[in-house]
Amino acid sequence: MKKNTFKKMAGIAAIMMSAGIFAGCSTATTKSEGNTATGNTIKIGVNMELSGSAAGYGQQQKQGIQLAVNQINKDGGVKVDGKKKKIKLVVRDNKTSTSTSASVAAQLVNNDKVSAIVGPATTNAGTAEIPTITKAKVPSVSPSATDPDYTLKKNGKVQPYVFRACYQNNFQGSTAAKFTYNTLKAKNVAILTDNSSDYGTGLTKAFKKTYKGKVVSSQTFQEGDKDFNAILTAIKNKKIDAIYAPGYYSEIGLIIKQARQMGINVPIVGSDGMADPKLAQIAGDKNASKVYYTTPFSTTVAEKSKTAKKFMAAYKARYHAEAPTFSALAYDSVYMIKDAIEKENSTNSVKIAKGLAKTKNFDGVTGTITVDKKHDANKPIAVEQLTNGKVSASTEVK
């Protein structure tokens, strides 16, 4: 090889190495910066179950999100650096699919360049987006992912960009256990568990850990089941004072209906997945009596709060219906992000995450919210009672 040729190749190699170093620096810098809004708008993404098995929850949450954004923009927007910026929603449907949720998250953070995300509604869909939002350093607030480990890594450390506006299952399950034993005076219960989801199994585990009475029968079912006669027959002749059946309205509504048709008339206690008008539609109004469920939002309890009353009035004016739990949770999720932006005086996604972690005594429609070190929302919990398909009573449990 000639000397001049060697020099030329060495020079080219040096340039390529230099370019590679600079490119590497550029990539690292971009990665550390996260997403920052430009212009007069702040993009907030919505990764939501708008179709599929959890669409009932997702559609309610979309309504709450839109209501919050409309109100914020009507009031001038979000204050940053002394100026008001409007929120622009980027709404995408994850179709109640984990693979789609991951894809939606990638589109929102990489293509749409959102500063924060609201959703998903379910723990499984929410978990699927975590690797993507963590890499992009964009925070996500789930209105209703209740699995205790949702906000945590496998080593127990908190996921830095994962938050929720709801409480987790341990709190909800233990509250149901205390209510069943202390208020309903039920000393013997049967438990019917949806063992196809972490939601159902987690709630059952928490209930059993706290319940002071006797569990005389434990039965399981799967998401999508329609016929529950076999598991109900197994408990019909047991001496039970109540049934604990944590799950979603689609299956629990049928369980209530078939239990009442079979002559099982003991109280049925469940979880926030039942907090939907469709429960009574499926069960039948007459059958939906002596039914109780834990919920982060009760319209009866909320009447004591000016913030909640304002939300309920606005919801009814826009959607011509009573505000459901999942709309309230989603509404709070948006305002938590607004609060974080204004607290940090920044639309940068990394700083918004820091602001969310500092949330304390936030006046939400679902109660006063403080985000703890695990990124869980510490807040009040209530138990609602259904009589003939309507909420007849509610109690805030402290």
TrEMBL record:
InterPro entries: BCAA_transport (IPR051010), Leu-bd (IPR028081), Leu_Ile_Val-bd (IPR000709), Peripla_BP_I (IPR028082). Keywords: Amino-acid transport, Signal, Transport. Pfam families: Peripla_BP_6 (PF13458). The keyword Transport applies. Coiled coil: none annotated. It comes from the Bacteria. Residues 41-389 form the Leucine-binding protein domain. Gene3D superfamilies: 3.40.50.2300. The keyword Transcription does not apply. CDD domains: PBP1_ABC_LivK_ligand_binding-like. One of its GO terms (biological process) is amino acid transport. Residues 1-23 form the signal peptide. Belongs to the leucine-binding protein family. This is Branched-chain amino acid ABC transporter substrate-binding protein. It comes from Secundilactobacillus collinoides (Lactobacillus collinoides).
